[in-house]
């Protein structure tokens, strides 16, 4: 459920919940999305367990690395398909980067450039902004700097119009007035407020937003400007044929021959309408496999693209459980086959970790590959779904947890595993 700007503001400045007190903001947002997606309000015990999990991630400095976290909870199907964490990358969920994007405080926060005059007009509800140029200098602009994180993808939204004949422009760049990250086409004149949505990936800690008419002597109007870390997954995840009785905190049960959960998350960077979750040199994904049932040429989790790729495939080809890196150049066979698996990449360092209650957290593979092997490849992540057409079938093995995140170090992965184990126990599940 998209949050409006007022909701964004109310999330700012709120401290994470402590165990036994109020619930974490992420959990409150998750519970609201569960209800909006047709589910019942999660139980108090469930919300407390989720809040304690978020607190564990915060204390281990892991929350900023989490792109998506989705776990199966006792409450049923909708809770399982509504991710607890949908976005991260150095900013808390819902953090608004634009200062005074609704112009409730006049034109404060915005700097005129190229002889522009900034003034208030009647906006969509309240004030809007007019950027007016003189008759000599082109590209009059209203500018603002945004505090960003390199490699993180952001979503910018704004409304624009011009009742007369002028056109407008929106630029996002690494320099003041620059448009190297995004330059809009000419925004057409019109009497109706029109939404513009832009995705861009920051390359530094400061990004510049500039907007106004490109022509000297012109003016253009803007309102409701917002920029946040992008939400890059479906909510809820796409569900194919699962019903509530198929799902428990210990994983997915029932005949999964025609059932799977597609996350819609892009594992690799690349062009296209689906925006990438993370850039190619800093990526990771984690699953928790509860049982080894239903073997035979089937896959539980995959992030795959022909050519150089990185994926975790549980019970791959019906023979072994292993994680594979870079099109088979390096592979492992962790034993036993159940438990926690985390595939991570930081630059050219590639690691897969495995752990379970009777087997300590260890690195199953730790190698260095050419960073170029991963460039320009992308794929989609699925639970209980092969992604390469008829070459793969579905599986009935029981997965109870999925996460996509920035690549984790050994220490971070170990902390993540401990937090997941504690969450599973708190929700009524068990160790394997």
Strand percentage lies at 35-45%
Count the strands?
Answer: 25
- Low-pLDDT stretches are 1-20, 88-92, 267-280, 294-336, 370-393
CA radius of gyration: 23 Å
Terminal-residue CA separation = 34 Å
Work out the helix count.
5
Structurally, the number of domains stands at: 2
CATH topology of the largest domain: Jelly Rolls
Oligomer: single chain
Main sheet characteristics: 6 strands, antiparallel
Describe it for me?
With 432 residues, this protein is mainly β. The protein folds into 2 domains: 5-87 and 232-426, Sandwich (Jelly Rolls); 111-229, Jelly Rolls, CATH 2.60.120.260. It has 5 helices and 25 strands. The strands form 6 sheets. The protein has a 6-stranded antiparallel sheet with strand order 1-25-16-21-22-23. A 5-stranded antiparallel sheet has the order 2-5-10-7-8, with no helix packed on it. A hairpin with a 2-residue loop joins strand 21 and strand 22. Helix 2 packs across helix 3. Mean pLDDT is 74; it is low at 1-20, 88-92, 267-280, 294-336 and 370-393.
Concise synopsis of the structure shown:
The chain has 432 residues and is mainly beta. Helix content is 13%, strand content 35%. It starts with a helix and ends in a 6-residue tail after the last helix.
List the helices and strands and how they pair.
Blueprint: H1 5-11, H2 25-36, H3 44-59, E1 66-71, H4 77-81, E2 111-113, E3 117-122, E4 127-132, E5 141-147, E6 153-162, E7 169-173, E8 182-183, E9 190-201, E10 206-212, E11 219-229, E12 238-240, E13 247-248, E14 251-252, E15 260-266, E16 282-289, E17 301-303, E18 310-316, E19 320-325, E20 330-331, E21 339-346, E22 349-356, E23 359-368, E24 380-383, E25 399-405, H5 410-426
Antiparallel strand pairs: 1-25, 2-5, 3-4, 4-11, 5-10, 6-9, 6-11, 7-8, 7-10, 12-15, 13-14, 15-24, 16-21, 16-25, 17-24, 18-19, 19-20, 21-22, 22-23
Helix pairs in contact: 2-3, 3-5
């Amino acid at each position: 459920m998209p949050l409006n700007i007022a909701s964004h503001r109310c999330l700012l400045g709120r401290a994470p919940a402590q165990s036994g007190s109020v619930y974490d903001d992420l959990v409150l947002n998750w519970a609201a999305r569960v209800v909006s997606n047709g589910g019942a309000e999660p139980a108090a015990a469930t919300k407390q367990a989720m809040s304690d999990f978020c607190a564990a991630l915060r204390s281990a400095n892991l929350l900023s690395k989490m792109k998506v976290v989705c776990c199966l909870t006792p409450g049923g199907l909708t809770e399982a398909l509504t991710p607890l964490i949908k976005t991260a990358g150095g900013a808390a969920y819902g953090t608004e980067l634009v200062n005074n994007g609704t112009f409730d405080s006049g034109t404060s926060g915005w700097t005129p450039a190229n002889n522009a005059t900034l003034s208030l007009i009647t906006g969509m509800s309240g004030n809007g902004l007019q950027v007016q140029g003189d008759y000599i200098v082109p590209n009059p602009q209203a500018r603002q700097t945004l505090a960003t994180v390199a490699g993180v993808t952001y979503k910018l939204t704004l409304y624009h119009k011009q009742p007369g004949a002028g056109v407008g422009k929106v630029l996002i760049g690494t320099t003041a007035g620059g448009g190297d990250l995004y330059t809009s086409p000419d925004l057409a004149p019109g009497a109706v407020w029109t939404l513009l949505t832009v995705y861009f990936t920051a390359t530094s800690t400061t990004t510049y937003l500039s907007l106004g008419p490109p022509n000297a002597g012109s003016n253009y109007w803007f309102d409701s400007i917002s920029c946040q870390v992008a939400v890059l997954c479906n909510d809820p995840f796409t569900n194919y044929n699962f019903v509530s009785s198929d799902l428990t905190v210990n994983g997915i049960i029932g005949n999964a021959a025609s059932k799977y959960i597609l996350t819609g998350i892009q594992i690799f960077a690349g062009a296209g309408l689906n925006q990438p979750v993370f850039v190619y040199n800093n990526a990771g994904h984690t699953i928790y496999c509860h049982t080894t049932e239903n073997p035979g040429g089937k896959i539980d989790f995959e992030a795959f693209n022909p050519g150089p790729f990185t994926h975790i495939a549980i019970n791959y080809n019906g023979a072994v459980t292993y994680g594979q890196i870079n099109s088979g150049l390096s592979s492992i066979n962790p034993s036993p086959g159940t438990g926690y698996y985390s595939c991570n990449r930081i630059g050219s360092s590639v690691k897969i970790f495995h752990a379970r209650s009777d087997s300590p957290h260890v690195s199953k593979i730790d190698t260095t590959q050419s960073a170029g092997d991963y460039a320009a490849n992308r794929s989609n992540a699925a639970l209980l779904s092969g992604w390469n057409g008829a070459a793969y079938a579905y599986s009935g093995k029981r997965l109870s947890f999925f996460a996509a995140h920035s690549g984790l170090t050994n220490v971070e992965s170990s902390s993540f595993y401990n937090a997941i184990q504690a969450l599973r126990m708190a929700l009524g599940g068990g160790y394997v």
